[in-house]
Structures are given as C-alpha cells and as structure tokens.
Amino acid sequence: IHVEGNFVNVPNLTFSSPCEIISSNGARFTFLQNSFISVENTEVKISNCVFEQNFINNELFAQQNLFKLDNAILTLDNCETVSLYNKNGSVIFANNSKINILNSGLTVQSKVYSSVFNLLNSDLNCEKSRISAVADSVIALTMNSGTLMLNNCQIQVNGKTSKIYELFGVEYSIQKNQFYCNDKNKEMEKVDVFSKKIVYEDNTINPF
After folding, report:
1. Which DSSP category does 4 fall into?
2. To the nearest whole number, what is the mean pLDDT of the chain?
3. pLDDT digits 0-9 by tens, 107-162
4. Distance CA 4, CA 10 (A)
5. How far apart are CA 25 and CA 199, in angstroms?
6. What are the b/e assignments for 130-145, b being 16+ CB within 10 Å?
7. Which residues contact 87 (CB under 8 A, 6 or more apart)?
8. Which among 17, 103, 179, 184 has the fewest CB atoms less than 10 Å away?
C-alpha cells in the first residue's frame, strides 16, 4: 500500500494478513483517543511514515500502546513515532513476536511509567535508531525471554528513576550505542537476570 498525506482521527487498525505500507514523503497518522495498531499472526512492514498519539489528558485507560503484537512480525524502516500518555504506556507491546526497528525514532512520554519496548518471548533487532522515554519511572526497553540485537542506537531516558533496559532470560548483543541519562549512577545502565551476553562493547553512558 502506497500512502501520502496527513491522516487524522485514525481509529484502531488491525492487521491479520501480510501488509506493507510505504510512503515517499512521510505520510502522517494521528490517532483517535485510545486507538492503536494491532498485528496478529502476520507480518507488517512500514516505511517512511510518522505515527502520533496524544492521550496525555485521557485518564480512562491506565495502560496504553501504539503497537500491540501477538505472534507477529513488525518492521519499521525510517519511521517516527510519538506517543504521549496520561499514566502508563509503551510504544510497542509484543508477545511471541519479532520486531525490526531500522533508521527510526521512537518517543514516549507519560506521567507515571513509560517504556518504548515491552516484550515477552520476543526478538528485537534495533539498528541506527533513536529511542526516548520520559516519565517518573522509565525503562526504555524491558524484555522477558527472547533475543536482543541493539546496534548503533541512541537511547535517552529521563525520569526520577531511570534504566536503559531490563532483560530477563534474554540472549543479547549490544554494540556501539550511546546511552543518555538525566542522572548517571550505578543503577542507570542496565539490569540483566538469567540472561546470556553474546557481545557487549563500545557502548557509552552520557549524563545530560
């Protein structure tokens, strides 16, 4: 599907069969309150698109997402996402899925808790991308089982308590990344429990 222009008041989008969405000039999708994208049992590829959610004043939903994946494959290539939530939210919530983030920027902000990735039994490949999360409590990436490849990315967390990632039972390769934290301390960088480190090198932590 080739798309161009601005799309406002976008309702829930559900994909249950393979789909590729391509824009040449950065098509923009602005979602209705509490609307999101669901991908189940299929593969979706999106290139050169912008996705926006602004639910900052909506107190009806405690947990919000932009993408919800179940047994799915999602690829974002040269995309931008901005998600503003009232209480708690994650840009991508996934179960038993595969996610590829390439040359993209993902941003989330909420009042209480935010994460960009909240993944269960899933595989994430994130390359040359910008990740940003803001809230009182922030974890840019949380994974429970699966594999992680994080290469040449910039990740920023800004909160009263902040972590770059929490990994539980994950096999990971993390190389050549720039981590930015509002308060650099020993707990800031990472937590990994029952995880297997394949590569961890050339990463830097920078306070701001």
Report:
1. -
2. 91
3. 999 989 999 999 999 999 999 999 999 999 999 999 999 999 999 999 999 998 88
4. 14
5. 37
6. bbbbbbebbbbbbbbb
7. 59, 61, 62, 63, 110, 111, 112, 113
8. 17
8-state DSSP, 128: S
- Phi, psi (5° rounding) for residue 92? -125, 120
Question: In whole angstroms, how far apart are CA 39 and each of 30, 44, 66, 149, 191?
Answer: 18, 7, 11, 22, 29
- The reported pTM is 0.94
Strands 161-175 and 130-134: unpaired
Amino acid (1-letter code) at residue 122 = S
